[in-house]
Amino acid sequence: MSSSSSSSEQQAPAPSAPLVAPSDTKLKCGILGCTGAVGQRFVLLLQGHPFFEIAVLGASERSAGKKYKDAVSWMLDSPLPQAVANVPVVLCNPEEFSVCDLVFSALDNIVAGPIEESFATANIPVFSNAKNHRLDPVVPILIPFANPEHIDVIPKQREAKGYKKGFIVTNANCSTTGLVIALRPLHEAFGIDKLFVVTMQAVSGAGYPGVSSYDIMGNVIPYISGEEDKLVVETNKILGRLSEDKSEFVSADIRVSAQCNRVGVLEGHTECVSIGFGKKVTVDEVKAVLRKCESPSSDLVLPSAPKISLALTEDCTRPQPRRDADCGHGYTVTVGRVRECELFCIKMVVLSHNTVIGAAGGSILNAELARVKGYL
Fold first, then answer.
1. Fold of 175-353
2. CB contact at 8 A, 102 and 27
3. pLDDT tens per residue, range 86-132
4. Helical pair 283-292 and 174-190, crossing angle rounded to 10 deg
5. What is the reported pLDDT for 282?
6. What are 197's strand-pairing partners?
């Protein structure tokens, strides 16, 4: 991730991929890590999807060879879809996914890196939830509601990695996603100088089995390994820009201080954010920007995108995970309690659904963007 693009500024801008109207033929997709919490969310969200259909389900040796219904400990409120109940689970090897046009990866960070690379090398594009490739200088941390233009680094990635048709696109950490969607219009309007963010993160963000009930019930855990560093680095990469020749990312220069906590909430990450700008900004000005902001990908046909990607509430008791996390079917980020900050400039509360827009749903949006942009 570069902080300067002086060498690239002398080159002619590289063309973006042309917009493509998806055909009626659905692309076949696979899910890596299909039995975990995020894998299950992928299975649910892809049912009846207009662009993609599940063709292969992959997991570890413990699950391989079993029918999906026998391999998974289903934990979502909606029932396990019958369309995939009897699908056999295979190992996460590219040869098992040869019929797939793309894969969604819900793999654990411990194993995700080399497995995802093997799929990209085998000409199967990867849309990953893992952290392993996020800081790679030619891999985008993509959020269509924040930085859709970053997808145009794919040709450079293919050139640098030796991929032909494959590539890797990651989404952000679940706590970063809601934050940057809320910050993007403010950064564009006023220029953010510094941030202080305290997160209250749902237990579903820890996966399954995750945090034990004995540890989390009636308790707050004021530490999530690696989470605070991700908020610092990922925020700056996402809110930065792609160089004119589309070969590198130019990081934003925002100072970020983060404290991350695990709380006894099932779904929905809440973040208390204090923002400093390069100039004096009023509460009314911030609210006006948040009210009128549109997703930078709003002109594209992304089937999973809600009508409103960012909602502002004037109810001083909101947003709340139990009442607002499912806004826009889990794809809408809600902002509330916008007010003056005594130490910075503005403070507010941000809520996002951590396993929809912050995980599986975010990856599906990325794949939808890749399809309409002609990369799939």
1. Dihydrodipicolinate Reductase; domain 2 (3.30.360)
2. yes
3. 999 999 999 999 999 999 999 999 999 999 999 999 999 999 999 99
4. 110
5. 97
6. 258, 273
Contact 87, 54 (CB under 8 A): yes
CA dihedral of 250, 251, 252, 253, whole degrees rounded to 10: -120
What tokens were used for 145? 């509601």
- Give the span between the Cα atoms of 216 and 236, in whole angstroms: 31
Domain 8-173+360-372: CATH superfamily is NAD(P)-binding Rossmann-like Domain (3.40.50.720)
Rounded Cα distance between 104 and 306, Å, is 21
**φ, ψ at 287 (rounded to 5°):** -60, -40
pLDDT (0 to 100) of residue 208:
81
Burial of 59 by CB count in 10 Å (0-12 exposed, 13-18 middle, 19+ buried)? buried
Provide CB contacts within 8 A for 323, sequence distance 6+.
Answer: none
Each domain of the chain, given as residue ranges in start order, spans 8-173+360-372, 175-353
Contact 130, 109 (CB under 8 A): yes
A 10 A CB-CB count for 259 gives 15
Catalytic annotation, pick one of 29, 34, 174, 327: 174
Kindly indicate the confidence band of residue 41, based on its pLDDT and cuts at 50, 70 and 90: very high
Strand partners, 27: 52
Torsion over CA: 241, 242, 245, 248 (sign): positive
Rounded Cα distance between 175 and 120, Å, is 26
Q: What is the pLDDT of residue 23?
A: 57
Residue with tokens 């400990």: 73
As a whole number, the mean pLDDT across the chain is 93
**Are 353 and 268 in contact, with CB atoms under 8 Å apart?**
yes
Is 345 designated active site?
Answer: no
Residue 105 DSSP symbol: E
CB neighbours of residue 337 within 10 Å: 17
User: Annotated catalytic, 329?
Assistant: no
Q: Which amino acid is present at 257?
A: S
Would you tell me the crossing angle of helices 37-45 and 361-372 to the nearest 10 degrees?
50
Q: What residue ranges in the chain does DSSP mark as E strands?
A: 27-32, 52-59, 89-91, 102-105, 126-128, 168-170, 192-201, 220-221, 241-242, 249-250, 255-263, 269-277, 310-312, 333-340, 346-352
Q: Which of 133, 150, 187, 269 does the annotation list as catalytic?
A: 269
